[in-house]
């Protein structure tokens, strides 16, 4: 039943996430791809798993994201953080646009090199690497890498002495949802000591890197980090005589939602501390900025437990051990949307507006659960829909490409949803 007239008073509805840069036309192409796929599955007769969750990936969105990045941060060259989503078509598409790569491990380096990418376009941005991986990087001529401790320098001296080194400094990431400086980064008071060891060992110091953490609400941390980086540049050049220090790597943590603000603050800091006349090469390691919005995840309702006609539990075939591991590992709150249809399976949008908060009448309260037998496998505790859902219906989640498929497990014997339907809205608009 529609519009039962119950107000949403006091109901907890998750805030809408960013959708995409594509506008309604691109969105309707994604929606069409969802419908076509869903219509092709007859759950009454299909093979086991034919109704598995799947992604629609809009490669046109990647092109728009790159143009947007270039417009807002024209001085900063992106090295895509492969860990956020190593989908081969995404990597190829970014590579063809001229985006470079941040790799965290041997297999990420291998994946990127297999596409024919020049190793000079890779930064091995992991400050704590296994010795064998350092040798691997040397063999594959991957020169650029980050470090933040003396032990790492000793391994690099032994296994890859020509390596081009960026010193990673700690940042104030206290407002970030995903904090990284608790694990990595040299504190400013220890920088001199570390630079002295680089000098002693005769290693090739080329720059400074940092990461402000992800999901930051206060971007003044960018300003402080860039200011600190300037300090390290000056000490390296003036106190230690490193003449080849020329790269500043501003890391990741960029979200499409907050990109106007973060890029603005970053530009102010860069113009103050690293003006164009300095000829410093500026790079970044964005992951989620590129990986999130091109992907929409669709999931099938496999079971339902109705408590009464207003409250029920829905069980879907993807969850916290699958693509929605981002709930636990990345502090994301995926926002479910319903693929509503009539008797003849004509589909319509759940919500005309992107903000679920604006839905006036959502009387049906649901909790949504993943398919494993673990009680932790909960996608959302409390959500409100306008219409009732039944087994066989589909839900979808927009902007769910970052830190989802890249960390999915096969726990309970469920396959990872690797099925991806590709569209390119940029070529069709
Ligand atoms: N660079 C490094 C060293 C990281 O650890 C990460 C994320 O963990 C990234 C880049 C990408 O961050 P984001 O996806 O938030 O842009």
Automatic annotation (TrEMBL):
Class in the EC hierarchy, top level: lyase
InterPro entries per the UniProt record, alphabetical: Ala_racemase/Decarboxylase_C (IPR009006), De-COase2_C (IPR022643), De-COase2_N (IPR022644), De-COase2_pyr-phos_BS (IPR022653), Orn/DAP/Arg_de-COase (IPR000183), Orn_de-COase (IPR002433), PLP-binding_barrel (IPR029066)
BP GO terms, sorted: pantothenate biosynthetic process; putrescine biosynthetic process from arginine, via ornithine
Pfam families referenced in this protein's UniProt entry, alphabetically: Orn_Arg_deC_N, Orn_DAP_Arg_deC
Main location: cytoplasm
Matching PROSITE patterns: ODR_DC_2_1
Span of domain Orn/DAP/Arg decarboxylase 2 N-terminal: 60-292
Keywords per UniProt: Cytoplasm, Decarboxylase, Lyase, Polyamine biosynthesis, Pyridoxal phosphate
SUPFAM superfamilies: Alanine racemase C-terminal domain-like (SSF50621), PLP-binding barrel (SSF51419)
N-terminal signal peptide: none
Domain Orn/DAP/Arg decarboxylase 2 C-terminal: 56-401
Membrane spanning residue stretches: none
The reaction(s) this protein catalyses: L-ornithine + H(+) = putrescine + CO2
Requisite cofactors: pyridoxal 5'-phosphate
EC number: 4.1.1.17
Residues at the active site: 373
Modified residues (N6-(pyridoxal phosphate)lysine): 83
GO molecular function, one term: ornithine decarboxylase activity
UniProt pathway: Amine and polyamine biosynthesis; putrescine biosynthesis via L-ornithine pathway; putrescine from L-ornithine: step 1/1
GO CC terms of this entry: cytoplasm
Record has Lyase as a keyword: yes
Subunit structure: Homodimer. Only the dimer is catalytically active, as the active sites are constructed of residues from both monomers.
Described function: Catalyzes the first and rate-limiting step of polyamine biosynthesis that converts ornithine into putrescine, which is the precursor for the polyamines, spermidine and spermine. Polyamines are essential for cell proliferation and are implicated in cellular processes, ranging from DNA replication to apoptosis.
Family indicated by similarity: Belongs to the Orn/Lys/Arg decarboxylase class-II family.
Protein name as it appears in the record: Ornithine decarboxylase
Species the sequence originates in: Lachancea lanzarotensis
Upper classification of the organism: Eukaryota, Fungi, Dikarya, Ascomycota, Saccharomycotina
């Amino acid at each position: 039943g529609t519009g039962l007239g119950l107000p949403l008073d006091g109901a907890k509805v998750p805030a809408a996430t960013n959708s995409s840069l594509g506008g309604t036309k691109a969105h309707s192409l994604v929606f069409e791809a969802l419908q076509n796929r869903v219509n092709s599955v007859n759950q009454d007769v299909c093979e086991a798993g034919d109704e598995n969750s799947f992604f629609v990936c809009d490669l046109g969105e990647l092109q728009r994201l790159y143009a947007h990045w270039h417009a807002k941060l024209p001085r900063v060259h992106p090295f895509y953080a492969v860990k956020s989503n190593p989908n081969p078509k995404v990597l190829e598409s970014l590579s063809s646009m001229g985006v470079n790569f941040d790799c965290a491990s041997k297999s990420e380096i291998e994946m990127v090199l297999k596409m024919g990418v020049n190793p000079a376009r890779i930064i091995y941005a992991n400050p704590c690497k296994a010795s064998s991986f350092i040798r691997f990087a040397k063999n594959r001529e991957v020169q650029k890498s980050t470090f933040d401790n003396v032990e790492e320098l000793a391994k690099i001296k032994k296994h890859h002495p020509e390596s081009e080194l960026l010193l990673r400094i700690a940042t104030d990431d206290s407002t970030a949802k995903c904090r990284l400086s608790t694990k990595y980064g040299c504190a400013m008071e220890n920088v001199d000591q570390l630079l002295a060891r680089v000098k002693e060992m005769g290693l090739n110091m080329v720059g400074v890197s940092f990461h402000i953490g992800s999901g930051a609400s206060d971007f003044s941390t960018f300003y402080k980090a860039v200011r600190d980086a300037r300090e390290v540049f000056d000490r390296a050049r003036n106190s230690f005589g490193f003449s080849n220090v020329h790269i500043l790597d501003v890391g990741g943590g960029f979200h499409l939602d907050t990109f106007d603000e973060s890029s603005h603050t970053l530009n102010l800091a860069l113009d103050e501390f690293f003006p164009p006349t300095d000829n410093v090469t500026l790079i970044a390691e964005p992951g989620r900025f590129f990986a999130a919005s091109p992907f929409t995840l669709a999931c099938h309702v496999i079971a339902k437990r109705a408590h009464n006609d207003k409250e029920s539990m829905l069980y879907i075939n993807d969850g916290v051990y699958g693509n929605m591991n981002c709930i636990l590992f990345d502090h994301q709150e995926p926002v479910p949307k319903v693929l509503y249809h009539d008797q003849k399976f004509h589909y319509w949008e759940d919500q005309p507006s992107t903000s679920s908060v604006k839905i006036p009448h959502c009387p049906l309260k649901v909790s949504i659960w993943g398919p494993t037998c673990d009680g932790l496998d909960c996608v959302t505790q409390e959500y409100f829909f306008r219409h009732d859902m039944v087994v066989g219906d589909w839900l979808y989640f927009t902007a769910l490409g970052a830190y989802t498929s890249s960390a999915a497990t096969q726990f309970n014997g469920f396959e990872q949803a690797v099925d991806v339907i590709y569209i390119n809205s940029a070529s069709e608009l």
